[in-house]
Input
Amino acid sequence: MSDTQEKDPQRAPGLRNNPWVRQRNVNIRWFLSLCVCACILLIVARQMRWDVGPLPALLSVLPWAGVMCAGIALLAWRLRMSSVAVVALIVTLAVAYLWAPAFTVNEQATPIVGAPTLRLMSFNCMGNPATIGALARAAQADSVDVLAVVEAVPFIHRDLANSALSTLFKYRYLTADDQVGIWSRRPLSDVSSLPMGFVGKAARVRIGGSTLTLLAVHPRSPRYTQAAQWRHDQSQLMGIVREQPAGPLVVAGDFNMTRDNDAFRDYLNNGFVDAADINGKGWKGTWSYGPDNWALVAIDHFLGRGVHMSHFDTVVIDGSDHRAIVSDIQVGG
Output
């Protein structure tokens, strides 16, 4: 046997002509090709703004599909499937290009020296009273000024009222039959429930000499057969956002959308920026699934207009499959 055959048994005549080996290679090629085609479909769906059926939910895994294609490119190259390797590499580069802004710090993240700052936190508590104590400790540790909580279902309202949140935050807006609440160290004005088919709150709070409008929202999820409801919620929310008066505005909460959804890009097209993106942390997941609580998908956001958001981070709160998100809000400059 030659040295080449010893180093590369796949090319040895005996193995190369083995029907089982040939069929195995054909099966591998087909499997890898189908995986790459699935990634291409997601990219096309994103760019064509398709949001039917399961596509809105599937688009949440697009960055991980890009990682998968990078692995496929390496494996296919090793197996001398050059055409599959080249296409997989192109798909990987396409996903990297689409996600580059999530890793890039924007000038809008630069703090305004001397300007008053409001630290904002948003959290989906999943209606779990076990999260409340950890949430209060995190809010205190991060010196949070305003806290928005979604899925604060009525049966945990008493737990919320009796928790340390009542000590930390003097002002609170949480109606008896609602699931979204706002807690604040600063006075809140013009508080109201949003006229939507899903839950949401609106309030105004002062930052120095300016007034910030805050919308705390939680549209429904696009999972399974709920894509039509999800589209309706996102369209209704965007309509309410457009009706808000001119001035500093932050929409916060669990949007049930990622930066690859068409609904997210509607905000960017209307002059909003995402706090995570402009701080180069758009890659940080906020929602997890699986036993290890890995946050793989970013569906919780601070979307701001007319504000500087000079900080962004996520905080693990035990008892929820969501991470709390934190940002510093400034006006002016």
